[in-house]
Design a protein that fits this description.
By secondary structure, this protein is α+β, with helices and mostly antiparallel strands. It has one domain. It is globular, with a radius of gyration of 12 Å. 27% of the residues are buried.
């Protein structure tokens, strides 16, 4: 997960914990996932946090484990269902 981010959100799912982090010297938002094995993987950069959240909802993250999982349910179509702060509970 990137360090020195300005704002971060996370969403725990059955296949991993997604994170969206605003970058400190850019208006970009990074999307990534922490897999069940604990490894964090960068998935892409988005112009908005909502765009990154939509990619998770739409199954278009680029992470095959998620994008091909048809059993995923209750994933919000925007940030309204995401938690603010890091997955460990530390807030930014």
């Amino acid at each position: 997960m990137p360090e020195n981010q300005r704002e971060i959100y996370h969403l725990q799912t059955e296949v991993g914990c997604f994170w969206i982090a605003q970058q400190p010297f850019s208006s970009d938002w990074y999307l990534g996932v922490i897999a069940p094995n604990g490894i964090s993987e960068f998935l892409g950069a988005y112009h908005t946090a909502q765009g990154a959240a939509w990619a998770v909802f739409a199954g278009s993250t680029g992470w095959r484990t998620w994008d091909t999982n048809k059993r995923v349910a209750d994933v919000p179509d925007g940030l309204h269902g995401w938690c603010k702060g890091t997955p460990s509970g530390r807030r930014t």
